[in-house]
Inverse folding.
């Protein structure tokens, strides 16, 4: 399985939870607001490497010469806020809204995806509701592709096709307009984060059912322990930040 | 909308024709304005964003607030182009941090719009973005959230207006800019 993963073996396991990260000057905090715990700079892998697709195949032998650490990644990782116990105890929620408040980090995030997908004959950027709607359209506009929203049930007004997927308890559905894409088109699927991979896998199935080739799934964040990548089958995954 | 004496920007007609009207959605009698077909046309989508960016780039806007979910499709691209922060205004229980909320009326019952309190403050000049203004209830709630943290709402911007629903009148005198009217 060809996978292009942007993650470093140098995972930091330091758990200095007592020391909140200094607040970014770009974010205005209300005086007296509870401090948000910025675990991200301790927990995220900051030395992320960008592999060329040629290097990916023989990654181990070419690592020393081929890999380049993009300086923008560290700033992006640091701008993501981790909120403990949301939506329920035990979950460390990866909050990208703080990234969106950092104009440089947001711009860099989009640029990293655009640099990768421009000129690759991709005509469809599919974005998963709702946070995929934040990252997908700027990428689509920059690479000259159409943007196709993949939505929860009953939101799209026209004729739809839907795909069911499993949740922890029960199932959900993802929908797309009939006719939005055509057989033979090349697509990328965007979401802010891949966890278990259930939603992305459903999005892949939906597009493949209408004859679209999914070139890659692209997310800002991966939670590798949840092994979402494994649900994507043959489809490669590209992420900027891996939260171990 | 632009003064009717002014020449209409030639890109507007191209945008209007790309919007699909779906009758009787979500229920009978409603002519639903579907912008997903606009998003399938890269040139028309780009023109849409360009028209907003051209208007706002020199207005010193520091925050673009987008209303979930279709405001998320247009707002971030505008924010990126004009160098502003993007702030998502969301349905209840989606935002993980400390929030404030504003209730607004629906035809039956009410709903809530939420914002992270730390995202915006009194130094900010804000633009509120959604795909469409109907009754103006959601936009009015959005404006209230921003006002409550001391931001100045400069304008509301939508792709489409349904003028017969008089949403413009609910914006407490704040200006509204739209590209297309549907009568």
């Amino acid at each position: 399985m060809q996978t292009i993963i942007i993650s470093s073996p140098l995972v930091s396991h330091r758990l200095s939870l007592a020391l909140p990260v200094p607040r970014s000057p770009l974010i205005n905090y209300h005086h007296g607001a509870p401090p948000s715990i910025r675990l991200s700079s301790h927990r995220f892998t900051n030395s992320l490497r960008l592999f060329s697709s040629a290097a990916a195949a023989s990654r181990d032998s070419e690592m020393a010469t081929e890999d380049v650490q993009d300086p923008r990644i560290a700033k992006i990782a640091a701008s993501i806020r981790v909120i403990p116990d949301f939506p329920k105890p035990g979950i460390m929620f990866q909050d990208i809204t703080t990234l969106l408040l950092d104009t440089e980090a947001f711009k860099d995030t989009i640029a990293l995806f655009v640099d990768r997908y421009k000129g690759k004959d991709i005509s469809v950027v599919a974005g998963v509701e709702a946070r995929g709607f934040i990252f997908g359209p700027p990428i689509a506009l920059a690479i000259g592709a159409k943007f196709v929203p993949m939505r929860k049930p009953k939101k799209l007004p026209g004729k739809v096709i839907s795909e069911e997927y499993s949740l922890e308890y029960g199932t959900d559905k993802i929908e797309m307009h009939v006719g939005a894409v055509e057989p033979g088109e090349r697509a990328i699927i965007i979401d802010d984060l891949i966890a278990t991979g259930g939603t992305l896998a459903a999005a892949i199935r939906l597009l493949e059912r209408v004859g679209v080739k999914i070139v890659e799934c692209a997310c800002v964040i991966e939670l590798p322990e949840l092994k979402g990548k494994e649900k994507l089958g043959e489809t490669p995954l590209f992420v900027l930040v891996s939260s171990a | 909308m632009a003064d009717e004496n002014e020449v209409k920007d030639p890109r507007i007609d191209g945008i209007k024709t790309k919007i699909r009207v779906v009758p009787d959605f979500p229920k009978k009698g409603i002519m639903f304005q579907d912008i997903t077909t606009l998003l399938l046309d890269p040139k028309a989508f780009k023109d849409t964003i360009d028209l907003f960016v051209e208007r706002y780039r020199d207005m010193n806007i520091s925050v673009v607030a987008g209303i979930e979910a279709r405001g998320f499709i247009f707002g971030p691209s505008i924010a990126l182009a004009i160098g502003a922060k993007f702030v998502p205004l969301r349905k209840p229980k989606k935002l993980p941090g400390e929030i404030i909320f504003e209730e607004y009326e629906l035809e039956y019952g009410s709903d809530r719009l939420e914002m992270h309190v730390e995202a915006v403050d009194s130094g900010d000049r804000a633009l509120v973005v959604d795909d469409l203004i109907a009754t103006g209830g959601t936009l009015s709630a959005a404006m209230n959230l921003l006002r409550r943290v001391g931001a100045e709402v400069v304008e509301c911007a939508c792709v489409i207006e349904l003028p017969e629903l008089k949403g413009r009148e609910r914006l407490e005198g704040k200006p509204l800019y739209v590209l297309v009217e549907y009568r």
